[in-house]
Amino acid sequence: MKVTFPHMGNQYVATKILLEELGVDIVVPAECNQEALNIGTQHSPESICLPLKVNIGNYMKGFKEGADTIVLTGSCGPCRFGYYSILQKEILKDMGYDDIKVILLDPPQGDYKNFIDSVTELAQTKNPYKILRALKKAIQILYEVDALEEATHYKRPRQKQKGLVDRYYDQFHKDVRKVYGYKETSRVIEKARQDILNIEEEPNREILKIGIIGEIYTVIEPFVNLNIEKKLGDMGIEVHRSLKISHWLTEHLFLSPLNLTMEGKTRKAAEPYIKTMIGGHARETVGHGVRYAQEGFDGIIQIYPFTCMPEIVAQSILPKVETDYNTPYLCLIVDEMTGEAGFNTRIEAFTDLLQRRKELRHNEKLLSGN
Amino acid sequence: MTIKIGIPRGLWVYDYYPLWKTFYEALGAEVILSNPTNKSILDQGVKNTVDEACLPVKIFNGHVLDLKDKVDYIFVPKIMSVYRKEYICPKFCGLPEMVKHSIPDLPPMIDTEINFNRSRKHLMRTVYEFGSYVTTNKKQIKKAYEEALQEYEKFKKQLKQGALPLDGIVKPYVITDSQEQKEIKKSGNAKRIAIMGHSYNLYDTYGSMNLVKKLQDQNIEIITAEMIDYKVINQYAETLEKKMFWSFGRKLLGTAMYLAVEKNVDGIIYLSSFGCGIDSIIEDLFERKIRKEGGIPFLLITVDEHTGEAGVNTRLEAFMDMIDWRKRDEGNLSAHG
Questions:
Q1: Boundaries of every domain in chain B
Q2: Which of B93, B98, B285 is facing A78, going by the closest CB pair?
Q3: Where do the DUF2229 domain residues begin and end (chain B) (predicted)?
Q4: Fewer CB within 10 A of the terminal residue: chain A, N end or C end?
Q5: What is the ipTM of this complex?
Q6: Can you tell me the distance from the alpha carbon of A315 to that of A302, in angstroms, rounded to the nearest whole number?
Q7: Rounded to two decimals, what is the model's pTM?
Q8: Do A142 and A21 sit in the same domain of this protein?
């Protein structure tokens, strides 16, 4: 059995560790790129959301390198993601991959037997101690890579010499594919983080802050959001990203089946606008938007894949948040047709607006003499 | 003064209108249904909804606007789930919020939550909440609810017999018509076509560009998912590898499997609206089952506010011609059209 899996931002580092620590043979697919998207677009239903299309492309890369099994997570509605596994199997069958094994890790929803069966099948061991130890290490890695990303968000707008952050960060992605197991990987992550934190800062730069909200896959996967974090960072903007995989995993795999949740504050913030869970992350999207606005961020950007149902609901509500809190809001929708030039123009126009607002506010303060 | 409750003629109206109308009328309220969808309702809806919303949601907002100044309350329940461990569509779940934030200055909304995802234990509490907009008398509400249920059962029976809730209203089904149709069928000339899709797409005559009527005018016998025994649909749907968690999706996929096995139709037309998240999966799986396992001719029509009727007509004609040839040549032509 040789296992591959779809990409979602830096999740691959943790999945790699999980499987390596279990001794499972794996293929880490190449990073998401145009080729993967093209393959996926060609074979997927036209109006399905973008993540599925990219997933298909990822698998193909994995198969090319000898993988014969896919592992993926799922959900049980109401978002489309819950039926990805079934549709992907059909697509792969039509592409001639009849004998690919799919291991699906659905949230247990009370049915822990099925879940545990899938886990033991993947782990090739029934020893719960071994599985839990590997899982613990993988989650540890998730938190570590998320911390690394946070460092890039902080440093990019402040670095004296532009491009240094990305040099270290790109190097990290290359290095991490070469090392094996938790210990080495953790060391590589920490080194990259230290390197980035040590970059010299330009002290007098005016930093704007933008909160990024929206659908988790498009927010997290840099290829599909056209590297928005890097783009904003290079424009001198500190980015705060509402969703992190580490939080998502803890939330969905452990807390929500037990009816616990970390998202209390966010839900509370969303309450005046949307009261119930409607699938996907619509409530969190609105909630995070409100929180960013309350915390005085200069702007909010929502990103989601074209036709994403929960996010359309959020999009209908966010203009109200924008006026209520007087915080500019921009909605970016991505799919395989998104052109980078148009995307850039909109981001630039938005940041110009934020810049201008900030200047105006400063000038008013000066004039009023306070 | 009687309370006026406005029910927008969109989305779930095609499935539940008799239930709600009877309920509120039994309580003494006046129920006002918005006008059938027309150009101005659609245009207003498009103007007051985010571009990315699907056609039925835009149409729904148009209907809300149509009622805005005529009623005391607008009926937009928050329908999350009508069966255990099933959902409708995320947009339905967030519909009251979407409407509220898209259209300014609305009369108060009846946005009680209907959620049977876990159980129906609190069904009566939900019913009382719906009734509380008109009266506080629980006994009266219960009685009205029972009356409404009866009406609803009658409505479902009519659908099963072949009546179509065009624009939300069922016209009593005339038996002589069906006999006539059956005779035509025997003579071998008539076609039997299954039309599939969400009820709010199929039965909205304006939004669907009169698809049903167009077929009826050609003396084509029409089958819809509502006419098939729900137990049968469920039996088929249960054989799916993973539980289908959308109620609409479950109905459609179960029907696809049923039709693929029974092969009792000459063709299938699937009407979808552009950007429908559920259909992007359901329609695809539906089509795979019908083409591969059923070998039945299949036509997908996707509509949105930009769709031109002439193009739809052309495609329909071509599809019908193909079925005619196929019938004449005893099915020797490819099912892939």
A1: 4-170, 192-332
A2: B93
A3: 4-228
A4: C
A5: 0.86
A6: 8
A7: 0.89
A8: yes
